[in-house]
Structures are given as structure tokens and as C-alpha cells.
Specification:
heterodimer, A: about 220 residues, mainly alpha, 9 helices, B: about 220 residues, alpha/beta, Rossmann fold, five-stranded parallel beta sheet, four-stranded antiparallel beta sheet, 9 strands, about 25% strand, globular
């Protein structure tokens, strides 16, 4: 299974979902905000939770479209289904690898980004952690969405319309934890809620995704 | 290693399809169709375009669920435990089941990890693919791609082989090697089910059964 994770990462990085591409989309989105809001550093600080979360959501959306299309057009989904491992486990591995190539670069870059946005240094840890929970949840939702639209026409539009409403709970708790920590109060309650949504998604997404893939193959 | 393969294939397996009815769109492809595919036999499914060759193959593998009827693996309905049944199959559709941007060896290793089979070495390189193992899959010609995909059968130790149009754009030399390979598998009590337009090349082997779907109801 370790080897499978290794190859899955290779596959992710060989396609367009290249970490460098993801990071540059994220950074260029983020740089627009300080430029457009002017030199008012307090305004920037107040807006920063919204900026961070919207930018990471958009970055995930640009990367997710047609996640399964390569596997579907090359006939690999059948091979996943007929493999020795349960399909839901393969989906789980795919989500984790997807997060490693898309979410992890964002978390690593976060200390630099917090400089752009005039965030206090002592809050970097807690906000990165909440961003970690949030981006992992986005990965689960995104992969489920791209499996559900397999075989439909204009899937790249439908997948975004399908995913966006589902990301709202993740977004609400993520933003509230960021706001709470900026106000100097404990953000633990929101972080617990984020953990809850993440564990809920981790439980149901592999099952729904594998069912969707089975229906597509049928 | 060879003794291990023969041991795993010693059991007298068979697949039985019973009262199959498959409807695709408004087209009724099969109705009340029965057949038993038993060990040590080669089955060639032939017929005109759109008659349902691929659908029948997918139905035998449990990838397509029939609208009515059942598929049995050694007298047990496959619906009871798909995962258990899937472990017995090596399936190749008309697509090559490889990632275009990965190298040839990476593709082969990925599939061998998925299916828990051996990996390729100079000893079992019947299809002559090691010379371009470092090439990315998309840079190969169609025939070479098909040979890479077929090499999965060289490594497979599973009893049931299902192949859709195996010899599309493959050279005469490798055709011979492939025919030898399936003949060996039949001799060690495996089941080989192939869909093809060209029946003649298989007919010279004994235990070859031709199923002409055009003449199903005559």
C-alpha cells in the first residue's frame, strides 16, 4: 500500500495538477488583494480570513475539475474496481495524495502569505492548522464531486456548481476559527467543528465516490 | 514460482451466466441468455458491431450489472461478494489502462501493485517492451501501447482472463506470442474469454469455443 501511495503521487504530479501550477495560481490570487485594497494595513487584517479561505477554495476548484477524466478515458477505473484492494480504500489514498500535491504547498507557503496580509506571527500555527483541516475537507468534497459528474457533458461547469454548496459548512467553520483567533479568543470550538466535518467527510466520501465510479462503469 | 501458479489454478473454476437480460438504451442486447464458461477452455466472442460483445464481457466480469439474471462463479452468485470475485480476474478493455504521462515501467508497476501480481523483468518480457521502459506512455505507437497493456497477462496468476479485442494493431510476431500465452493459460486450467472479429487465428487451438452473437437466436 505504501508503494501505491508513491505511484499515486507520481501520477498526480505527472498530470496538470502540478504543485508549481497550483502554487502560482494561489499566489497570484493572493497578491491581487493587497494591491487592490491599498496600503491600509488594518483593512487588510480584517479582510484576511475571507481572503485566505476564498483563495484556497478557488485554487482547489481550478485543480479539481476533471479529476477522474484521465482515469476514465484510459480505462483505469475498471482496473481500480477489479484490483485486490477495496475501491473505497483506493479513493481514500487518492484523496490523501491529492491533498499532498495541492493542499500541502498552500500550508507550507502560509507563513509567507501571512506576511503579505499583515497577520500576527503568533497566530500562524493555529490558522495553518485550521487551513489544513479545511483544505483536506475540500479535497474530499472535490473528489466526490468529480466522481459524481463522470460521464456528463460540460462536467467542468457542473462539478463547480455541485461542489460549491457542499463547501459552505467547511468554509463557515474555517473562517470563524480564523476570525476568532484574530480577535484573540480561543478558536478551539470552531476547530472542533472543522474536525467533525472532516471526519464525517472521510467516512462517507470514499463510499459515495466508489458507488459513483461503479455506476459510471456500468 | 511456476508451481505456485499451477497450484493456484488447480481448482476447477467456471463462470456461469444464467437468464441474462441486458437493455442498453432502447436496445435489448440479450434476453434469457445462458452460458457456462469452464476451466481449460478458450472462448471467442464474435459478432457484428453493436451486438453486445463488450457488454457481455463486462457482464461476465461483474462490471455491468445485468437487468435480469445472475452471474455465478463456482456456483456462488457474484452479487454476494464482488470483491472476492474480482480477485480472480485480469481484465483489459479496448482501452489500454495506462496513464499517458507516466513511463512504461511506472505504468506496469502501478497495475501490478493494484492487482498484487509480479512485476516485469527480463525473464518475462515476452512482448519486448523493456527496450523502451523509460519512454512515457503517450510517446509510444498504438501497437506498442497495446503490447504494454497485454504484458499484464504475462504477469497475471489469476484464473479468469477477459480481454476485449486484444490484438488491435499488434504485429504478427507478437500476435503469435500472445496466442501462445493464452494457450498456455488454457492448458493450466485457466479460462480465457476474448472478443474478436478475427476468429480464424484462434480456431487452430483445441478447446476453442466460438460464440457468434449474430447467430444467438437462430
Amino acid at each position: 500500500m505504501n508503494k501505491l501511495i508513491l505511484y499515486e503521487l507520481k501520477i498526480q504530479n505527472s498530470s496538470i495538477k502540478d504543485p508549481i501550477f497550483i502554487v502560482s495560481v494561489y499566489l497570484s490570487l493572493l497578491i491581487i488583494f493587497p494591491l487592490s485594497l491599498g496600503a491600509n494595513s488594518n483593512l487588510l487584517k480584517d479582510f484576511s480570513p475571507a481572503i485566505i479561505w476564498t483563495c484556497s477554495l478557488i485554487t482547489f476548484l481550478t485543480a479539481i475539475e476533471k479529476y477522474f477524466s484521465a482515469d476514465a478515458s484510459e480505462g483505469l477505473l475498471e482496473q481500480y474496481l477489479l484490483s485486490n484492494l477495496p475501491l473505497s480504500l483506493i479513493v481514500f489514498i487518492k484523496v490523501i495524495c491529492y491533498w499532498v500535491s495541492v493542499g500541502l504547498p498552500l500550508i507550507i507557503l502560509f507563513p509567507i502569505i501571512s506576511l503579505f496580509l499583515n497577520l500576527p506571527v503568533n497566530l500562524i500555527g493555529i490558522i495553518s492548522f485550521s487551513l489544513f483541516l479545511g483544505t483536506l475537507s475540500f479535497s474530499f468534497i472535490g473528489i466526490m464531486g468529480s466522481a459524481l459528474v463522470l460521464g456528463t457533458k460540460k462536467s467542468n461547469v457542473i462539478v463547480i456548481l455541485l461542489i460549491l454548496p457542499l463547501t459552505i459548512p467547511v468554509l463557515i467553520f474555517g473562517i470563524s476559527s480564523t476570525i476568532l483567533s484574530l480577535q484573540g479568543t480561543s478558536a478551539l470550538s470552531s476547530i472542533y467543528f472543522q474536525c467533525m466535518t472532516l471526519s464525517f467527510l472521510a467516512a462517507i466520501v470514499p463510499l459515495i465516490t466508489s458507488k459513483a465510479i461503479k455506476i459510471y462503469i456500468d | 514460482m511456476t508451481s505456485l501458479i499451477t497450484q493456484s489454478l488447480k481448482s476447477k473454476n467456471f463462470v456461469r451466466i444464467e437468464n441474462i437480460e441486458i437493455i442498453k438504451g432502447s436496445n435489448r442486447l440479450f434476453s434469457g441468455y445462458n452460458y457456462t464458461f469452464s476451466y481449460g477452455n478458450l472462448y471467442i466472442i464474435t459478432g457484428s458491431n453493436g451486438i453486445g460483445k463488450t457488454t457481455l464481457l463486462k457482464c461476465i466480469c461483474g462490471l455491468t450489472e445485468p437487468d435480469k439474471g445472475n452471474v455465478f462463479w463456482n456456483e456462488v452468485s457474484i452479487k454476494k461478494n464482488y470483491q472476492e470475485f474480482y480477485r480472480n480476474i485480469t481484465y483489459l478493455g479496448h482501452l489500454n489502462a495506462s496513464f499517458p504521462h507516466l513511463s512504461v515501467t511506472d505504468n506496469i508497476n502501478f497495475l501490478s501493485i493494484l492487482h498484487g501480481t509480479k512485476t516485469i523483468s527480463t525473464k518475462n518480457d515476452n512482448f519486448g517492451i523493456l527496450p523502451y521502459k523509460k519512454f512515457s506512455f503517450s510517446s509510444l505507437s498504438n501497437g506498442q501501447k497495446r503490447r504494454v497493456a497485454l504484458s499484464a497477462y504475462n504477469l497475471s496468476t489469476k484464473p479468469l482472463w477477459v480481454i476485449d479485442e486484444p490484438l488491435n494493431s499488434v504485429d504478427k510476431i507478437y500476435e503469435k506470442i500472445f496466442l501462445e500465452l493464452i494457450n498456455n493459460h488454457v492448458k493450466r486450467n485457466g479460462i480465457v474469454i476474448i472478443s474478436s472479429h478475427d476468429v480464424q487465428q484462434y480456431k487452430k487451438y483445441k478447446n476453442c469455443n466460438v460464440i457468434n452473437l449474430d447467430k444467438l437466436y437462430e
